[in-house]
């Protein structure tokens, strides 16, 4: 089969190559991939010299089951599915266990649902971890990105007052259209405290987001898109204004290797198919155009998801 592999001689450290077809384990379905989406983490990871040439990467892929799992788990051949994995999604075929595969309604756009696994599941899980959001103020940093766009929509659906942070003022209207009630360039500009933060950027934004949290609130540190370190002034950690019991939590989508994501993948796919969630695709092309898409993501020229159609 053809696949996108790490190639450190290529501009975006990726190229197409012929590789062996995957051999599914008894609990894995074999999926013919029709569309994939790119995430900052894996595209950045491909540029890391420690990632070997030839490595098969790619977390998000959607397609059609061509062979059901032999142990009877998961959907039948012919079912459209969205899949999550730690590797090897950007290829014509992918072997996936039932726990990392969601059914997609007939006729749904597989490119749109391919954006779900990393961005959609991360947003969903982090917001769920904050507890009931009805009437609470929730801040989303890196709001124009893949995770951020899902998070705005899901938080607004859950009844939160959504405070979006984006360094790009031109995006304000589009973020409001997704459900943001306020849009700021920086967490330091937010006037009223928030009860929770989904923090994608790191560096100074993590410090300023923590300063914006009310007593008992939490910042969930999801990403470090800025690449910067966070240096907390001592006063931020020993407040004298009564805002105690605030916390910062880390998060990793695949922290529990055995977690069953199928119900959430299936629900998110149905929401997208019904038009109730906007997948936020800002760039879509054939997978032969992978280099432009990856560079746009790395150079912060992409606001939303990049999707590649496999043909
Ligand atoms: N822990 C996990 O399990 C997990 C899961 C998913 C993602 N992540 C991480 O979470 C982060 C967000 O993921 P994503 O897929 O949404 O990434 P993305 O699509 O690249 O979006 C990140 C957003 O952060 C902002 N940003 C980027 N570079 C920045 C910089 N130098 N300074 C300030 N802001 C910057 C941009 O928003 P504006 O231009 O609007 O400011 C951008 O749209 C990434 O770091 C990713 O690796 C972690």
TrEMBL record:
Pfam families associated with the record: ADH_N, ADH_zinc_N
Record Gene3D superfamilies: Medium-chain alcohol dehydrogenases, catalytic domain, NAD(P)-binding Rossmann-like Domain
SUPFAM superfamilies: GroES-like, NAD(P)-binding Rossmann-fold domains
Coiled-coil segments: none
Keywords (A to Z) from UniProt: NADP, Oxidoreductase
Domain Enoyl reductase (ER): 7-308
Listed CDD domains: MDR4 (cd08270)
This protein's name: Oxidoreductase
Organism: Amycolatopsis oliviviridis
């Amino acid at each position: 089969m053809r696949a996108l592999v790490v190639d450190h001689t290529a501009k975006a450290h990726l190229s197409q190559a012929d590789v062996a077809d995957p051999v599914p384990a008894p609990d894995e379905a074999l999926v013919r991939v029709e569309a994939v989406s790119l995430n900052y983490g894996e595209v950045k990871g491909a540029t890391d010299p420690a990632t070997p040439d030839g490595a098969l990467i790619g977390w998000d892929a959607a397609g059609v089951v061509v062979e059901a799992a032999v142990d009877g788990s998961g959907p039948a051949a012919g079912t459209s599915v969205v899949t999550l994995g730690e590797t090897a999604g950007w290829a014509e075929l992918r072997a996936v266990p039932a726990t990392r595969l969601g059914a997609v309604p007939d006729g749904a756009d597989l490119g749109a649902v391919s954006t779900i696994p990393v961005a959609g599941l991360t947003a969903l899980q982090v917001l769920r971890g904050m507890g009931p959001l009805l009437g609470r103020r929730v801040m989303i940093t890196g709001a124009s990105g893949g995770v951020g766009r899902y998070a705005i929509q899901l938080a607004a659906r859950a009844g939160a007052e959504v405070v979006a942070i984006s360094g790009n003022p031109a995006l304000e209207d589009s973020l409001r259209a997704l459900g943001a009630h306020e849009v700021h360039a920086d967490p330091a500009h937010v006037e009223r405290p928030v009860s929770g933060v989904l923090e994608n950027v790191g560096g100074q934004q993590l410090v300023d987001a923590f300063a914006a949290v009310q007593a008992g609130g939490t910042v969930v540190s999801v990403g470090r898109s800025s690449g910067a370190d966070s240096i907390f002034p001592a006063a931020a950690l020993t407040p004298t204004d009564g805002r105690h019991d605030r916390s910062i939590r880390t998060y990793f989508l695949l922290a529990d290797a055995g977690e069953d994501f199928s119900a959430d993948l299936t629900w998110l796919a149905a929401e997208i198919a019904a038009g109730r969630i906007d997948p936020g695709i800002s760039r879509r092309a054939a997978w032969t155009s992978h280099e432009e898409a990856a560079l746009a993501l790395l150079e912060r020229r992409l606001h939303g998801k990049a999707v590649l159609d496999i043909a």
